[in-house]
Structures are given as structure tokens and as C-alpha cells.
Amino acid sequence: MTETAKSGATPLEGDGKRILMIIGTPKSDSLCHSLAEAYALGARTEGHVVRQIRLGEISFDPILHEGYSQNQPLEADLLEAQRQIHWAQHLVFVYPVWWGGLPALLKGFLDRVLLPGFAFKYRSNSQLWDKLLSSRTADLLVTLDTPSWYFRWVYGAPAHRQMKRTILGFCGIKTRHLEEFTPVRPSSEAQRQNWIRRAELLGSRA
Length: 206
Fold this sequence. Notes:
One of its GO terms (cellular component) is cytosol. It holds the Pfam family Flavodoxin_2. The protein is of the alpha/beta class. Helices cover about 40% and strands about 20% of the residues. The chain has helices at about 5, 30-45, 75-85, 105-115, 150-155, 160-170, 190-205, and strands spanning about 20-25, 50-55, 90-95, 120, 130, 135-145, 175-180. The strands form two sheets. Strands 2-1-3-6-7 form a five-stranded parallel β-sheet, with helices on both faces. The longest helix has 16 residues, at about 190-205.
């Protein structure tokens, strides 16, 4: 977590949005981090307040050992993450696609944090549920090695559908924009710099 998020300090926010970025890669240095910093720069330039949670730097067990059948106490960093999600008006998830899905660390974070009573609530004697985070929007910045057309038309874009519909949508968070940066592996330095400029532009439009 950034120092702003750790301390709980609330800067002067004015009319800007409260934006929480969640960087969902365990790697300490990656294209995802560069994209996140560029997005944050663009957003701050427009007067928005940006905080970050870097999942590779916080401490928690990513395994929900007993599902929802037992209460698994949240670590301090996860309790703070829930507070930051409540604070935020807009969420930004920055992560790679591995094996067609979310990195295990990000999936484990979502399993542990988006709990019943916090992110959703099942209704008694009903198959329906209440979406408890419905006042929030999200942007997704996603890196892939698979070309976009192949990921969409051959694989069916499973990571995108999971994140937009069955995770965020289930909790009431509306995905505003999903931006792919692909293919990463054969990309040139010039291409990566162009992606970073795109991320900054997205942040300025937050």
C-alpha cells in the first residue's frame, strides 16, 4: 500500500474523484507498475485523489480455506483494503493475464476481501442478492502476451468475462473501460512507451 493509504491521511480532495488503484501482480517491477503510475499521473493532473494497493507488497493469506462456511479473520492489510474500497468512488485494476485468467494473488485478494456483508448480501429465501458496492465504477488495465483477437475469438476472453461480470458486476461495480496492452512479449520499447501514454490519457479521463 502507498503511504497515503497506509496512514489513512485524507488530502484535500476538492471536486476530484477518489480513485483506488489495485496492482494485481506479485512482480516488484513490471509493465503493470509503469501503466499504473502513468494512469495515476494523468488522474492527479485532473485533480483526482489517487491511492494504490500493490498486492505484491502487502501481507495476507490468499487462500479462502473454508469458503464462506467459516469466518476467516482478515489480516490488517485486508481490513485496510476494505476501508480503501469503501473510500473510493472509482477503482482501477492493473494486472496481467496468466493462463487465460487472473493471477493467483489477485484472485486470492478478491476471494478474501469481497465477502458477504461487505461486497454483497444474499437475500433470505431467495436466489437473488444485494450488490453492496453498486455506487462504484472501475477501469481495467490488462497486459497479455496473447494477441487481442486470438484471446477474444479463440479463447473467449475468459479473464475479462470473469472480472467484469462474475466478480465486479456481481458486487455492483460497473466496469467503465477495459484497456488491453498486448502482445507484451514481442513489443518494442517504442510500443511500450505508447502504451504508457495511453494509460496516462485514460487516467486524465477518469
